[in-house]
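To the wet lab folks,

You asked to see what we're planning to order before we commit. Fair enough. Below is the target structure as tokens, and below that is the sequence we designed to fit it. If anything looks off to you, flag it before the synthesis order goes out.
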């Protein structure tokens, strides 16, 4: 018996990679995700390679995973891929406490994020 296989939610010319539980706030991660939205995959990789942000290395790994998924699982042409979507979601928040003056304490929140990258194959236009 078993369950029926789920229908593919993406189009036939799309591939996806998800990186979950990234130890950075969604606001900071979105700055790097915004850097690659709408660009060709090769250009996005080079932009992330030379970015000064700490999280750019993690985003680059997720983008490489999406490119590998497109090539190996969906038989898409790597040279004609663009970053169709790169969206960031909130995850858990670790709560910690730090000692303050006069015997008080303050709360420290350490947020986590999710990153989803969707690549789309586009046809090259004749110049």
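Sequence we intend to order:
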């Amino acid at each position: 018996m078993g369950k029926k296989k789920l229908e593919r939610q993406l189009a036939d010319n799309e591939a996806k990679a998800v990186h979950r539980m990234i130890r950075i706030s969604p606001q900071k991660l979105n700055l790097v995700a915004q850097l690659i939205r709408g660009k060709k995959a090769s250009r996005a990789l080079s932009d992330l390679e030379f970015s000064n942000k700490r999280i750019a290395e993690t985003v680059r790994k997720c983008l490489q995973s999406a490119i590998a998924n497109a090539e190996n699982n969906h038989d898409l042409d790597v040279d004609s891929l663009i970053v169709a979507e790169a969206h960031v979601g909130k995850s858990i928040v670790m709560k910690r406490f730090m000692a303050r003056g006069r015997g008080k304490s303050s709360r420290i929140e350490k947020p986590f994020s999710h990153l989803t990258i969707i690549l789309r194959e586009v046809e090259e236009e004749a110049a």
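Structural context that might help your review: The chain is about 30% helix and 35% strand. The first strand starts at residue 14 and ends at 22.

Thanks,
Computational group
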